[in-house]
Amino acid sequence: MSANSPFSIYQIAKQAIITGIAQSSDANPIFTTMATFLGNLDDNLSRFENANQLKFDCKPSCDYCCSYRVEARAHEIFYLANALESLPQDVLTAFKARLDTTKATTEALTVPEHLATNVRCSLLGEDSLCVAYNARPALCRNAHSTDVSSCELAYKEPTNQDVPNNRDNALDQATRSAILGMNDAFKDMDYDDTGYELNQGLWLALTQPETKTRWLNKEKAFPTLEGNITTVV
Ligand code: SF4
Predict the structure, then answer these.
(1) Protein residue closest via CA to atom 4 of ligand 1
(2) For a substitution probing ligand 1, which of 73, 124, 144 has the most ligand atoms within 8 Å of its CB?
(3) Could you give the dihedral angle defined by the CA atoms of residues 163, 169, 175 and 181, in that order, rounded to the nearest 10 degrees?
(4) What is the rounded CA–CA span in Å between residue 228 and residue 233?
(5) Residue 217 has what DSSP assignment?
(6) CA–centroid distance, residue 20 to ligand 1 (Å)
(7) Ligand 1: distance of its center to the CA of 66 in Å?
(8) Alpha helices of the chain — where are they, by DSSP H?
(9) Do 115 and 230 meet the contact criterion of CB atoms below 8 Å apart?
(10) Nearest-CA neighbor of 94 among 120, 61, 129, 131?
(11) What is the pLDDT of residues 114-170, one digit of tens each?
């Protein structure tokens, strides 16, 4: 990833998605293409860490960043919803109960209020592990940290805008370029490219099957949600 400019990373990512999906109107090729793309994103982060002798503080069960507001595109939400079908029944049942609560909590907040409030993601299990780690949204994959003390401070002081950014700048830029390439590929193919609050979008995807039909028909997937994109990719 480091050998390429952000623009070439963007172009490569975008082309990979467009080529993978082609003109398909079926969800399966889309999910297969996304699995490859998102897996590559994880691999590239690991490769960059090793090649540049960085040492990220991220480790299993460290969940400070899982209380941030996460925005995801429709393609990520339906990919995630599809993956959740493979969860063991007890894990799925517990997740759905958390999702009901988190959906109600987040929809009562304005976007600025949510950005200044810790709301534990419904996908985070009791063991502080993501129950859908392999299908998590792209922004979660870029949440690497070179200093866990900054993560802790941001968690303890969610209204504090002065907590230093603890990401590696070059890696952050490269990853964002790839994510933007993915999102722009869907946008160019006329799919809904709105950024949706993750829990609210996921709740609709799981409880209202017609949302997936709308998405595949290239309509707004979740017209009842405010499509307010606040996270710059
Ligand atoms: S989707 Fe998973 S990784 Fe992302 S915030 Fe939720 S629990 Fe954390």
Answers:
(1) 140
(2) 124
(3) 100
(4) 13
(5) T
(6) 26
(7) 5
(8) 6-21, 27-51, 74-84, 89-107, 111-115, 138-141, 148-156, 169-188, 198-207, 210-216
(9) yes
(10) 131
(11) 999 999 999 999 999 999 999 999 999 999 999 999 999 999 999 998 998 889 999
Q: How much is the mean pLDDT over the chain? A: 93
Written as one letter, the residue type at 86 is S
* Crossing angle (nearest 10°) for helices 74-84 and 27-51: 100
The answer to whether the predicted template modeling score (pTM) of the entire model surpasses 0.85 is yes
**Residue 28 half-sphere exposure toward CB, CA atoms < 13 A:** 0
- Taking residues 160-187, what's their average pLDDT? 94
Q: At what angle do helices 27-51 and 169-188 cross, to 10 degrees?
A: 170
pLDDT value at position 233? 52
Instruction: For residue 67, give the DSSP letter.
Output: G
Expressed in angstroms and rounded, the spacing between residue 111 Cα and the centre of ligand 1 is 18
The rounded distance, in Å, linking the Cα atoms of 157 and 168 is 22
- Crossing angle of helices 6-21/27-51, nearest 10°? 150
